[in-house]
Design brief:
InterPro entries: Transposase_MuDR. This is Transposase MuDR plant domain-containing protein. It comes from Paspalum notatum var. saurae. By secondary structure, the protein is mainly alpha-helical. Among the domains are: about 25-85, no CATH class; about 165-220. It contains 17 helices and seven strands. The strands form three sheets. It has a three-stranded antiparallel beta sheet, covered by helices on one side. Strand 2 (about 135-140) and strand 3 form a beta hairpin. Helix 12 (about 345-360) packs across helix 13. The termini are far apart. The model is unreliable at about 1-20 and about 70-85 (pLDDT under 50).
């Protein structure tokens, strides 16, 4: 046969050149084929066991119980096992005349409707769909006296009544607590993925509210231990400044604000940092209320900061950058103004100001109401080693602590403290591997113009940009803090959490859009659209306030 000739050509033998007889040749082939058949049979049995285990897991049975029910181990003519037979009574769409039975399963209402139409045409019945919805279908025969009726509904195996809101809250307590903005639609998908349970949106909402309420109760406990936390910070990091203030407007002891300046950060800033301070506020995203950026809050904060940094002589030599720039609706005028702000010399400043005056003379005059010494790089004094005209570093830091802003006061401080502690250690370890005298980023900028100079480049670099000064900044260690169970107990009163006034509507977590700023999405907002009540045809009211429904 051809198969034997093919096998004969593929076989290669080692040894002497003696010819092999036909009997020995066929005997060798039989040995090889029998070994392959045994190996294939073992693989088939192993595959059956794996499939049987999966089927038993789905049905909640033992694998031995479905051995004869779910598997047909009879081989066909080709010696291959047949596919698994489903235990479900499924509809046969290939049947000439559809046959219905109690408990028959369909893929959906569309397949069920098509089967009924096909059945009515084949049996000459006039079927009427009494109810045709996504979850249920009911059809009857319109002939007089005929009691033929069929009803089908959606019966999902994923509807597990044992999955309650308390169970969901326990399952995803840490996830919801760490991310309070987790949408209920995503919780529903997580339940379907992890527990194979299709729960309702309302049940997910109740579970989320239970977790947030428990987190709020624990938050109240955190505010009552702020003085204990203050004592622990002062004990673990001597030399630090930790101030806790209560709200004087309430008779009860209510937490108002807290100031923390670690000794390692204080010494590192005074040792190697430039005399530059950037100011910006950030809002809590949690369940408590915080004070706005008022003169009183800024005066209190800057007064403590002045003492820690030893700022004397009215701040002589210090650079304070605040976030006071406002966006302009005209992008072209905005670009021209930034050209004035970032001009490196006064000649270029005057040129860009002239270009701006040609476009808007009033804008150029209004720009000079504030002295350019405060906002233009061309008028900055020498010695500060700072040419920043924006507050982007503060915005970057606020973005890095975005998750911490959802936490209560102690959890928030601990999250920020750990970030700062890791940052100090990483920067210290990185600077120890540097070679030379200048920091790498500064040296990269200097290499661009390295061919223009014939002198020693180190003489043109300010001391604050050297590696030695950089290492002084991160030379101090931020010491670890004990857990809440080991904190000292303070004799101060136990303050309560700040009051929270719930506003109407959904709480907003994103910033407000500027005037003229393009929206993020592609849909037009309906803010400001007048809604008309369809029954009376008048505006500014709905069904509850309409006089016709009174």
């Amino acid at each position: 046969p051809k198969t034997e000739d093919k096998q004969e050509t593929e076989l290669e033998w080692d040894g002497d050149d003696k010819e092999t007889s036909d009997e020995e040749y066929h005997q060798l082939l039989d040995e090889f084929s029998s070994a392959e058949d045994e190996e294939a049979e073992q693989l088939r049995k192993f595959a059956k066991e794996v499939k049987r285990g999966r089927k038993a897991k789905k049905l909640g049975l033992h694998a031995s119980e479905i051995k004869e029910k779910a598997v047909d181990e009879l081989d066909d003519s080709d010696g291959e096992t047949e596919r698994w037979k489903s235990l479900e009574n499924r509809f046969d769409k290939k049947a000439a005349v559809p046959i219905f039975s109690l408990g028959m399963a369909f893929r959906g209402n569309s397949q069920f409707n098509k089967a009924l139409v096909k059945y009515g045409l084949k049996t000459s019945r006039h079927l009427v769909f009494v109810k045709d919805e996504a979850n249920r279908v009911r059809a009857t025969c319109s002939w007089k006296g005929c009691k033929w009726l069929i009803y089908g509904s959606k019966t999902s195996k994923r509807d597990n009544k044992l999955v309650t809101s308390n169970g969901i809250a326990k399952q995803y307590y840490n996830e919801i607590k760490d991310n309070p903005t987790w949408k209920v639609e995503l919780i529903k998908k997580a339940m379907l993925r992890d527990m194979c349970a299709d729960v309702s949106i309302s049940k997910c909402k109740r579970a989320k509210s239970l977790v947030l309420k428990a987190a709020l109760d624990s938050m109240q406990g955190e505010y009552s231990r702020v003085y204990d936390y203050q004592m622990e910070l002062l004990r673990s990091n001597p030399g630090s400044t930790v101030v806790v203030c209560l709200d004087p407007e309430f008779e009860e002891k209510v937490f108002e604000r807290m100031y923390v300046c670690f000794d390692a950060c204080k010494k590192g800033f005074l040792s190697g940092c430039r005399m530059v301070i950037e100011l910006d506020g950030c809002w809590f995203k949690g369940a408590t209320n915080v004070a706005t950026k008022t003169y009183d809050s800024w005066y209190w904060f800057l007064g403590l900061l002045q003492k820690d940094l030893n700022i004397n002589n009215g701040g002589q030599g210090w650079v304070i950058i605040s976030d006071q720039q406002k966006k302009h609706t005209d992008k072209e005028l905005q670009k021209k103004w930034w050209c004035c702000a970032k001009s490196p010399c006064r000649e270029l400043f005057n040129y860009h100001r002239t270009v701006l005056a040609q476009e808007t003379p009033e804008g150029a005059q209004d720009m000079m109401k504030t002295s350019p010494e405060h906002w233009s790089r061309a008028f900055f004094k020498l010695g500060s080693n700072c040419d920043l005209v924006d507050n982007n570093m503060c915005e970057s830091f606020n973005n890095s602590i975005m998750d911490a802003r959802f936490y209560p006061v102690i959890s928030m401080h601990e999250t920020i403290r750990k970030k700062v502690m890791v940052r100090i250690q990483e920067n210290r370890a990185r600077s120890e591997r540097w070679v030379g005298t200048i920091c790498p980023n500064i040296f990269k900028k200097l290499k661009i113009n390295i061919q223009r100079s014939s002198k020693v480049l180190d003489d043109f670099i300010a001391p604050c940009f050297t590696i030695s000064e950089y290492m002084k900044t991160y030379d101090h260690v931020l010491l670890p803090v004990e857990g809440p169970g080991n904190w000292p107990i303070s004799d101060m009163p136990r303050p309560k959490a700040p009051t929270y006034v719930k506003m109407l509507g959904r709480p907003k977590t994103e910033r407000r859009m500027k005037v003229g700023e393009a929206p993020k999405g592609t849909k037009l907002s309906k803010v400001g659209t007048k809604i008309k009540y369809r029954l009376c045809g008048k505006f500014d009211h709905n069904a509850r306030t309409c006089h016709k429904n009174a």
